[in-house]
Amino acid sequence: MRRTLAKYVKRITENPILVPIREHAWEAFAVFNPCVIKRNGTYYMLYRAISSSDLLRKQGSSFSSIGIAKSRDGIHFTDRRRFIVPEEWWERFGCEDPRVTFIDNKYYIFYTAISTIPPTPDGIRVGLAISRDLEKVDEKHLVTPFNAKAAALFPERIKGKLTMILTVNTDRPPAYIGIAQLGEDCSTWYGEFERWYKELKEHVLTPDPRRSPMDHIEVGSPPIRIEEGWLLVYSYIQNYFSSNPEERVFGVEALILDPDDPRKVISKTEYPFLVAEEYYEYWGHVPKVVFPTSILREKDEIKLYYGAADTVCCLATIGVRELVEIIRSRTEQVFERYPQNPIIRPNEKHDWEALATFNPAAIELEGRIYILYRALSRDKTSTIGLAISEDGFRIVERLDEPIYSPREGFEMKLTPGHSGCEDPRVVRIGEKIYMFYTAYDNVNPPKVALTWISVKDFLNRNWNWSRPRIISPPGIDDKNSCVIPEAINGKYMFIHRTGGINIVYDYVDSLEDIDPNKLMSFKLLRPRTGMWDGKKVGLAAPPIKTSKGWLVFYHGVSHDNVYRIGAILLDLKNPENIIARTSRAILEPSTVYEKEGYTRNVVFPCGAVVRGDTVYLYYGAADYSVCVATASLKRILSILV
Domain 336-640, what fold? Predict the structure, then answer.
């Protein structure tokens, strides 16, 4: 079975850890949004349960109550029973999404109380149940006189006062996450919140965590204390107010709040670190939803409990330090740019490379690194140029003429505009060098073309390339291609991107006899909606064999069209199986030459060379110039395994 894992966030293999039980009418439809607390060696999970239709009060619809279950390991939960049920007038149509905090020898359980059907903003408020032993509910209170949900107490007093975090105006947007300090008598909180709400803007998080007015936020888990401050994991829904519900992206994000004044946001994530990817997150009562409701810290690890597709309960883990790193920086600091970048720039003296030189392949032969780069002429025809480096950085020779130019009809310009031979990737297999590139005529969809040359001819600069062949499925946009440079069980794994979105693969018997009509294009890697690679992904450099697996760099494009670089690790014997995938980008545009050029905000590698423990990554910057960055191979692998 294929695994698509991030280094930092690891879903446990037992997921989902809690599912509906048909024989229990009160939880037959869905069980989700769990909040877990550990006391005296026992894990207690409180969770939202939706009944089978028409169970409560014969209203002709399903209703929510709150269940409780126990576990010794935090994964396998038993002894399930109903715990909080609709009883009071202000909760008569449902009790939803509990969050529990233990303080002053009591369990404070906040939940969403529904008093109207269908639910209206004024009928969606915060309720509170208090229990001394989690065996029974000792008292209940309506807490907010206004529309609110997703509330929790901090697990310790702040400046001597009970402190609460909640989401205000969730159904009368825009919603805000607010902080309230309350008196000791919870029966007076309703009145305190009447006064608090009149000065709402004085109590909300600053700065507002939202990146766009189209987005929506809600408190996820009760906060926990870490060295840097209060850690809050919360729900961030991108494009929540879009007219097209399909554009909504439910993600899990995190921020750190000031330890003494939790209204102040110290730092926050720029992208979600968890989005819907697995089948149990994609399919259910509400598809493509991951909703965090609880975190537990155990030594250096955080257990993240969340609801998936509003149907089941799930668990993922992440290191405390790793999560703090994600909050502080959206990019993993792995690669170091060569200070003298760019190493290849356009040459106006040569018409064929006057407009841009970028997206380079690279291969090491006899101690020298050969850089095959895409060159763009003034009439926007792409050819392949060659530069040579001995130390991996400085160019010692650069040819005056292209080593490869358009020859076949499928890569000749049919109308004015871009055409030619684009974005080469090269591998050596035996005594041949195989070059995969994108062939484009500016009318038909781009296609993958393959040509080859003997190593001897290449070194002697006899450019006797074989006649190129199209190896793409008919009529489909296909590019970003290469192969694993050795046969796996007698076949070659051909990696490419069809349809402009997903990385796919095919196994072929021979590189020199690929039948495009027989390609199936099995999906290998897809974008993670809402993340830095959420719009499309494509192969970067050819796969690199390591002791841990095949290391594959890929480019990911965000919805704001920024090209960044990530990595995956494929199983050595079964490379269609993904062992790991980076959560964060490992290279992103940050310099002027990457942000400004022919196309803004682009880093686009097509080649990599390994010397000892050093990876030399050659990339196009802003579709204009060629650059190089280096990283420790061990460091890259440590991010993945």
Answer: Tachylectin-2; Chain A (2.115.10)
